[in-house]
Amino acid sequence: MTSDLSIHPGEFLAEEFQVRGMTQRELARQLGRPEQVVSEIVNGKKGITAETALGLESVLGASADFWLGLQMTYELAKARRRRTRSRTRRKSRSG
């Protein structure tokens, strides 16, 4: 069984900023992406796309597979939580 504990990849990205002494603006510039996109990822409002993962691989060195894996793990955990809540509501209505 897999764990439903996960963090949004943006949280991990924010930690990377601190470790590297980098700003969101600097990363956005290096990625060639709007600063707002990086901000939305860091704040958990946007996910990491394949294109962004490739850019992060180039700039930060961690593989695109790593970034997409974080995103997929997060999305699966979210889906499992929704499914569990939905089942719990149905059981409470029927019982």
Written description of the protein model:
The chain is elongated and about 55 Å long. It contains five helices and no strands. It is mainly alpha-helical.
Structural class: mainly alpha
Helix fraction, binned, reads over 70%
Q: How much is the average pLDDT?
A: 91
SSE topology string: HHHHH
> How much of the sequence is in beta strands?
under 5%
Low-confidence stretches: none
Q: What is the overall shape?
A: elongated
Q: Can you count the helices?
A: 5
Q: If you compute it from the alpha carbons, what radius of gyration comes out, rounded to the nearest whole angstrom? A: 16 Å
Main beta-sheet strand count, sense and barrel state: none
Number of strands: 0
Q: Can I get a quick summary?
A:
This protein has 95 residues and is mainly alpha-helical. The protein is 74% helix and 0% strand. It has helices at residues 9-20, 24-31, 35-42, 50-60, 64-94.
Entry keywords:
95 residues, mainly alpha, 5 helices, elongated
SSE blueprint and pairings:
Elements: H1 9-20, H2 24-31, H3 35-42, H4 50-60, H5 64-94
Helix pairs in contact: 1-3, 2-3, 4-5
